[in-house]
Amino acid sequence: MKKLISLLLVTVMLFAVMAPMASAANERTPVVYIRGNGDGIYYPDGTLCVAQFEDLDFDGAGIDKDTIVETAVNILKPFVLEGMLFDEWDNYGRAIYEEIKPLFPDSDLDENGNPKKGVGVLASTMADSVAAAKSTWYYNVNSAYCFAYDWRLSPYDHVDRLHEYVLQVLATTGQDQVSMYARCMGGSLLSAYLERYGHLGHIKNVLFCDVLSNEATVISKAFSGQIEFDAKMVERYAGQLDFCGQTGDGVGFAFTEVLYEIVFKTMDFFNQINVTDKALDGVEKLYEKLYKALIPALLHATGMATQVNYWTEIAEEDMDAALNLVYGKEGSELRTKYAVLIDKIRYYREHISSDLGRFYESLDEKGIHYGFIGKYGFMNAPFTADADLLSDSLASLTHAAAGATTAPIGKTLSEDYIAARVAEGKGKYISPDKQVDLSTCIAPDRTWILKNAHHDIIDCLHPIIYAFLNGTNVTVETSGYSAFQVYDYATATMTEMTEENCADYDFITRPVEKPTTQTILASFMKFFTMILNFITKLFKGELDFSNLLG
Q1: Sign, CA torsion 331/333/335/340
Q2: What's the pTM?
Q3: To which H or E segment does residue 403 belong?
Q4: What are 291-321's pLDDT values in tens digits?
């Protein structure tokens, strides 16, 4: 009997010890997710504030097919009669503003950087309570909470409410800390929150994924009017448009077979004989005349000029040029009118982006474990300076990965550079395709890279995200996932990058860097054959222009 009682007592004791252990094993760090600007913005009562671009009501704005010609005339008249003839561009910019503004009636903020009709929230997270905002899409994570915010505003307009949200998540889950994760424009809000509240000890892990808060080159150069033209970049971008049109990711246009033949064989031939470069030189000189009217008009018409969050993505060296272009020089009427808004822009820069190195050092001092995910394989807009940076089409890898050294798009790092890194014992940070060096990153051992993935691609990365956010001091070595991954569009999965599977997409490698007699002759034959086939089909009635666009 004593033995039986002893056995029962031991069993009860074991269960008493194991139960908390099992409970602890099932507990996961709650995750607060801050997304970017992918969704439309709605007011709390459910009415639309800012639509997604693809959902814009062109008919409701009065821009239907019957008025396209009238709109074109309204814009082209001052362009030709005043700009081209007399080098006067003010009315041209005014015409652009007046024609585009009806499509974005409530997108801009007032002169103080505040919404004109009240703060909105993201369409996918209109409910603001923790219970309603709990997300189920997140990969294998039971506790992921999506913070709803109006991405037009300054990140610092949201940090106090975000802090209340974090405290509510902690109270709901009974945990002492949360992990935080941001994508795209959400990186700016997360950075502002960490700068102001990161010292309180509530944050365990932080992951910045494809964020623009370290600088978005395409936005920085566009806002500051730094436009360059390169024929090979244009050809690559046309191929990228076709690729994205086929896959349905990002900005794309699926070319029909006929149009594909015409566009790419013509561009290839012109590039070979440098005709495109010469033509674009003329376009570039013309643009130097008109961009001071064009860019401010577009930014003000769409509301982007007053949306402070976009200004957080502009490089420090481009800021003065951007402010001068969009709001005029110091002392101008617009500078005076928008003084409060500009102060909000500068406040973020003074506290974070003017010294990003110091900002991330402060996270180390606060005991916050942070990491980065970046992607590449696509190019930025072809007419912006630095269009040849490796990119996911929006976030340049150098900036998304917080300091990665990259080769120009379509090229590799030099052999001497790689040899020097290997001699320093940093060879493991060189990507198998020899295009990326992570050793120069702020956190090289906590940075993962996905090649051949557009900015929109995220699902395949969830295993890495999950491992990082729910672990303790997770690094590349302890995560179970290589720093360098490759995306496969056919299977929508990622695999470890090797020298065998890391080729660039065809639209990147297609343009020939240095034409030779052989490549020029081959290109001419393809171009000439395409023209003959096109004419033959047209005369046979096998082709009409209505079929060119599919």
Answers
A1: positive
A2: 0.82
A3: none
A4: 777 888 888 888 889 999 999 999 989 999 9
DSSP states along 81-123: IIIIHH---HHHHHHHHHHHGGGSTT-SB-TTS-BTT---EEG
Go through the chain and tell me how many residues it has: 550
Beta strands in 318-410 (DSSP E): 369-376, 405-406
Backbone angles phi, psi at 152, to 5 degrees: -75, -30
What span, in angstroms and rounded, lies between the C-alpha atoms of 93 and 328?
Answer: 14
439: exposed, middle or buried (Cβ count in 10 Å: 0-12, 13-18, 19+) = middle
Instruction: Supply the DSSP symbol for 429.
Output: G
Q: How distant, in Å, are the alpha carbons of 203, 444, 460, 491 from that of 494? A: 29, 20, 6, 9
Contacts of residue 192, defined as CB under 8 A and 6 or more positions apart, other chains included, come to 155, 156, 158, 159, 348, 351, 352
Task: Enumerate residues 6+ apart whose C-beta is below 8 A from 550.
Answer: 254, 255, 256, 259
- 209, 181 in Cβ contact below 8 A? yes
User: What is each CA distance from 204 to 29, 130, 194, 201, in whole angstroms?
Assistant: 8, 19, 11, 8
Note the pLDDT tens digit of each residue in 84-99: 666 776 777 787 888 7
For 11-15, 311-315, 337-341, which range has the lowest pLDDT when averaged over its residues? 11-15
Cross-strand pairs, 145: 32, 134
Q: What's the rounded Cα separation, in Å, for the pair 26 and 32? A: 18
